[in-house]
Amino acid sequence: MEELLNTSIARYTTLKVGGSVSRLVHPTCTDEVLEILEKLRKSGEPWFALGGGSNLLVSSSGFDGTVIRMTQMQHMEQVEPGILEADAGVRLPHLAKYAGSIGLSGLEFAVGIPGTVGGAAVMNAGAHGSAMSEITESVTIFDTKAWKVVTLSNKDVQFEYRRSAIDPDVHIVLSSRYRLSSDAAETILARTQHNEEYRFKTQPLGWPNAGSTFKNPEPTRGAGMLLDQAGAKEMRRGNAGVSAVHANFVINLGGATSEDITSLLREMQEKVHEKFDIRLHPEWKRLGKFTDEELKVWS
Ligand SMILES: Cc1cc2nc3c(=O)[nH]c(=O)nc-3n(C[C@H](O)[C@H](O)[C@H](O)COP(=O)(O)OP(=O)(O)OC[C@H]3O[C@@H](n4cnc5c(N)ncnc54)[C@H](O)[C@@H]3O)c2cc1C
User: Domain 76-201, what fold?
Assistant: First the structure.
């Protein structure tokens, strides 16, 4: 199993921000995940499960612990008619295209979400009016409190808007099963391609970013629209900026620090609060140490 010591984590995130981590490991199967967790239990060292790093801000001071990067757990297979099982590290665009190619419909919405099966279960990732909650049959996790592998039904996962009962401080997602419907492969792939092209037109994909920064406060009042109307587009803080294409996308203009980003997030929140009296809450997760002032962004 590949293991890197004192390595920069920025390159493993889509925002390309963050300092060094003490250890980065790449398990390729469940047994290797359990082996790592067993060692960490003995040493008492902190750990963090990383997927695609596409919904994450890592602090410039990094993380003093082990990052378990799941992206080499890559198996996916139709295990029963209409049931697709995928390892935690499979990327959603890959999964959506694979499902389409074998005539399974339901994942077309996920083609533009650059996260993994694990991160998507934690976040209940969604797009184009659909979300993982609608197609997930079950999620298999390792529960580090109970110290055992547990398979959660869709109901047990308690999906909500951009969250679930899977707690990344305690649980590691190992795999998910999806219940999908049958359709002609070319019809599914045409829908998938349409969704992918729409993304290219509406998101600043040429710049490092972590997708939507803030959750939508209400289904009818998108954070992007509120930020746009509050004049947030093209705001700058150090080397971080708000995209001119989509006001809910923060982009790394080159060498942005986590400090640049958190102060930009704070200003974006203030702009929307001043104009609409609405408090925006970040969708992003964090890793590493942040000051009390910075943490107010998430409070
Ligand atoms: C260009 C772009 C577009 C995006 N569009 C969308 C969109 O349309 N809809 C949407 O919902 N999101 C979107 N996102 C955000 C992101 O892709 C999703 O939130 C995705 O589900 C995150 O998955 P990840 O694997 O990258 O998670 P990470 O960013 O790696 O981690 C996020 C959280 O999940 C936890 N986690 C990850 N893997 C595991 C695991 N195996 N076990 C336990 N915990 C785990 C981490 O510890 C962390 O707390 C977009 C991001 C980008 C960059």
Answer: 3.30.465
Give pLDDT tens digits for 196-215: 998 888 877 789 999 999 99
Q: Where are the domains of the chain?
A: 2-69, 76-201, 205-298
Q: Which of 9, 50, 55, 116 to mutate to test the pocket of ligand 1 (most atoms within 8 A of CB)?
A: 55
Q: Does the pTM of the predicted model rise above 0.90?
A: yes
- Residue pLDDT, tens place only, 4-50: 999 999 999 999 999 999 999 999 999 999 999 999 999 999 999 99
On whether the CB atoms of residues 58 and 287 are closer than 8 A, the answer is: yes
Angstrom distance (rounded) from CA 218 to CA 205: 25
- Write the burial class of residue 292 (CB in 10 Å: 0-12 exposed, 13-18 middle, 19+ buried): exposed
Contacts of 86 (CB under 8 A, 6+ apart): 75, 76, 95, 117, 175, 176, 178
Residues 6 or more apart in contact with residue 207 via CB below 8 angstroms: 243, 251, 252, 253
The atom number, within ligand 1, closest to the CA of 120 reads 21
Looking at CATH, the fold of the domain delimited by 2-69 is given as: 3.30.43
